[in-house]
Amino acid sequence: MRLITHNMLQCHVKNCNTNNFPLHFQDAQLELIEADFNPEFLINMLPKLEWEALVNTTLQLGISTLPADLPENATENEEFLKLLHNTILETHVQQGKMICPNCNHEYKIKDGIPNMLLAEHEI
């Protein structure tokens, strides 16, 4: 699972409506998988990213390459776009779990695929 995907996931357990984003990683096993650099895609994704959540998640995973604040010249800064590309498109979580900070529900990740399905009583 790419970190760009993680930045869009939240807990959907019944009555878990606050503090359910971002999900926290536990026992995450990372893998770098090369992807083609596409600055236009990154520029279009910037407004959709929850920047603070992304930075906190990367720090939790031991990645400290992203700046704490989104640079003002982010769309023209190729060096920044390459760092962003590496972080959100080439860094994959292959195994582990995501934990909801509110209800502590666990979403397992196996072979890079997060299991976001809920049991009937959780819906």
Task: Describe it.
With 123 residues, this protein is an alpha+beta fold. It has a single domain (3-122), classed as N-terminal domain of TfIIb (Single Sheet), CATH 2.20.25. The chain is built from four helices and four strands. The protein has helices at residues 3-6, 39-45, 51-60, 78-90; strands at residues 24-32, 91-99, 106-110, 113-114. The chain has a four-stranded antiparallel β-sheet. A hairpin with a 2-residue loop joins strand 3 and strand 4 (113-114). The protein is globular and about 50 Å long.
Compact overview of the structure:
With 123 residues, the chain is α+β, with helices and mostly antiparallel strands. Helix content is 28%, strand content 20%.
Any descriptors?
123 residues, alpha+beta, N-terminal domain of TfIIb, 4-stranded antiparallel sheet
Q: Strand portion, in percent?
A: 15-25%
> Total strand count, please?
4
Main sheet?
Answer: 4 strands, antiparallel
Q: Output the CATH class name.
A: Mainly Beta
N to C succession of SSEs: HEHHHEEE
Rg on CA atoms, Å: 15 Å
Reported by name, the CATH topology is N-terminal domain of TfIIb
Helical content band? 25-40%
Order of strands side by side in the largest beta sheet? 1-2-3-4
Low-confidence stretches: none
What is the average of the pLDDT values?
A: 97
Shape: globular
The secondary structure category is alpha+beta
CATH architectural type: Single Sheet
How many structural domains are formed by the residues?
A: 1
How many helices? The count is 4
**Terminal Cα span:** 24 Å
